[in-house]
Design a protein that fits this description.
161 residues, mainly alpha, two-stranded antiparallel sheet, 66% helix, 9% strand
Length: 161
């Protein structure tokens, strides 16, 4: 699909546009730049999963912290009982249980560390993506055929005639 480039001068800077130049196409002469309403809708669509993921990570970290506290309490109680007994079989069984609790605690700590909150703010992460789609000429200027195809798929939902 051939595109025609144009440069429009605003008050303070120039704006690049790429337009479809295939006559008879529904998109003939239309700019590939998304409208502000589309940008707002995309922002709202991405906000919900972002907030949901942050809440899920927070819940998982809190659950792991509760599990770690419970294991710590079990270990402490087991150590107290261990110091009060003289039976070697009981001591051996308690040491085995203590080793298992220590492994469980290490696993819970590792899982807690893996469940991290998203890095950066929502706006910091979404802004470059929206800017990327709001300025498609930068994508087109790269000359990469795969990137150009992605841009065209995003811009036009169906096959062009």
């Amino acid at each position: 699909m051939p595109l025609r480039s144009s440069l429009s001068k605003g008050r303070t800077k120039h704006y690049a546009y790429y337009l479809c130049q295939t006559k008879g196409c529904d998109h003939y002469g239309k700019s590939l730049e998304p409208t502000p309403g589309l940008v707002q809708m995309a922002t709202a669509m991405f906000r919900s999963p972002w907030d949901g993921r942050a809440a899920q990570a927070n819940e998982l970290r809190q659950g792991a912290a509760r599990q770690i506290r419970a294991i710590d309490a079990e270990i402490e109680a087991l150590v107290k009982r261990l110091t009060k007994t003289d039976n070697h079989r009981v001591i051996s069984a308690m040491e085995t249980t203590l080793e298992k609790l220590e492994r469980d605690r290490a696993i819970a700590v590792e899982q807690s560390e893996k469940q991290c909150l998203p890095r950066g703010t929502f706006e910091e992460k979404l802004e470059p993506a929206l800017h990327f789609f709001a300025t498609p000429w930068k994508l087109w200027e790269t000359g990469d055929v795969a990137l150009r195809r992605v841009m065209l798929k995003v811009a036009f939902p169906g096959r062009l005639k």
